[in-house]
Protein: Gastrula zinc finger protein XlCGF8.2DB-like
Organism: Thrips palmi
Amino acid sequence: MGILTMNPFWTLSITEYSSHCFNTKSWDGLPQAKGFLIPKLKMGHDCPVCGKKNKWASSLTVHLRTHTGEKPFECTVCNKKFSQRSQLKPHLRIHTGEKPFECKVCNKKFTESASLRVHLRTHTGDKPFECTVCNKRFSEGGDLRKHLRTHTGYKPFECTVCNKKFIESGKLRVHLRTHTGDKPFECTVCNKRFLHGGNLRVHLRTHTGDKPFECTVCNTRFLHGGNLRVHLRTHTGDKPFECTVCNEKFSQGGSLRKHLRAHTEDKRFECAVCSKRFRQISHLKTHLRTHTEGHDLNIQLANGS
């Protein structure tokens, strides 16, 4: 057996067959070798940091950047950096608007072929990634990895301000806005700003009048999916919120909270004229009308604040 040494990281095992004389094709840049067969590649591209095995030296080079943080490929438009050239190419399409990958079912277009493959599962219903704990299935491997943390309790992303931990980096980024006050999503109609893109999308419906959530029983339509869920209880009679004191049940959490004040005798709202106290601010406002009109009546909390 002959050993062809290519570099300090890896070697090729080459077996000579005396009974067969033939020319192999050039393989991965190697010259043709008459009378030699390359049946198996034995390599030693192990990561010196975490021990991960890599098939190629180039793969090891790319992998090592996950440890060093090196990102040598930079976008000339926004200066965002990437660890791989293959990541920069689809990113540039964000700036050019190019979406070369089109769904043949609904004609939706994508900047990356991988995004199209994932999207196609919304049509086929394919969910190839299954949780080994609860058997829940997912269309994307990334979603499964995030889901597994709900079983392990692993929350690797920690807020440096209040130390609250999160399962996903995206949720940490959104949380940080509660500290910075940043509201990056602005309504183009009224300029109101929001922490979450989802909140902006819902808000825009107040301008367009769009109510995409429809009751299948009475056809009433709603802006929010949550409002539809609450409404459906008027048809089903479901009352999931139960008072722990008297066991009375309610269809909405807000109704239960109001009810609980009857047990706690929490009368936080005080009339500035006669000092009479009320559990709800709406009751105080009604009471204020019994006093002479024209006075400057202030609503005060029981603690004087």
Remarks:
- The first helix runs from residue 57 to 68.
